[in-house]
Design goal:
mainly alpha; Hypothetical protein af1432; 8 helices; 46% helix
Length: 227
């Protein structure tokens, strides 16, 4: 941790992977970088490292995003899951018991997480469906990574997601996370552009407005010309 030298900012700053300065008490969207996030999450072990082998927060996020895609969630939801723990790149993985003892930690994390989500086009907040999946994957994780117990806490009643916990090395987790982010954001931009290109009067798209063809819609005149 570096000493504070800029009187215009609150608190102290920590250096990021890319060499930037990040003020935890005074975060700004322009100082958030997905490459810092991917690198830090890939080097952060879930459950404070209290597991039988290394398992990164980055892999956790990728597995949840992949599951959401497999069950047909829209790409915006898949991206939301990929980024749902992005704040931990800057705060570290604070376990649930600590958050329950000190609610202000959860509130602080929420503010930073909302800023990250909004930067990358994800609405602020954590919808209930994300929280459910986040709890259900704990079944898969704890079975694969922890000494068995009969009294595991924080496990959702719907049971596991049945995803395979692989324990990727940090460099692989970082690469897969970044690849998923780039693929999703590109697809979401393309989808938005296609919607913007859609013309409700276009005969090529059909009256149901369910199809979008490449490029700008070509409006075909419906006027019957009398010869």
């Amino acid at each position: 941790m570096e000493n504070e030298t800029n009187t215009e900012r609150k608190g102290e700053w920590q250096q990021t992977f890319l060499g930037g300065q990040f003020y935890l008490l005074d975060p700004r969207p322009e100082e958030i970088d997905i490459r810092d996030i991917a690198h830090a999450l890939s080097n952060t072990c879930r459950y404070r490292g209290m597991c039988l082998r290394y398992y990164s927060v980055a892999e956790h996020c990728v597995l949840l995003a992949t599951y959401a895609q497999s069950v047909g969630r829209p790409m915006s939801d898949v991206l939301a899951l990929l980024l749902h723990d992005a704040h931990e790149a800057y705060t570290g993985d604070v376990t649930t018991p600590y958050k329950n003892m000190y609610p202000e930690i959860r509130e602080f994390e929420r503010g930073l997480q909302d800023m990250i989500q909004e930067k990358y086009g994800v609405p602020a907040g954590k919808p209930e469906w994300i929280d459910v999946l986040d709890q259900r994957i704990r079944w898969d994780e704890k079975v694969a990574l922890m000494v068995p117990r009969d009294d595991w806490k924080g496990m959702h009643e719907e049971g596991p997601l049945h995803v395979a916990i692989q324990g990727w090395e940090p460099h692989k987790a970082e690469g897969v996370f970044l690849s998923a982010f780039n693929t999703l954001t590109s697809a979401i931009r393309a989808e938005a552009k296609a919607r913007g290109d859609f013309n409700p009067d276009c005969e090529l798209c059909g009256p149901a407005k369910e199809r979008v063809h490449p490029g700008k819609c070509r409006v075909v005149s419906r006027i019957v010309r009398v010869k």
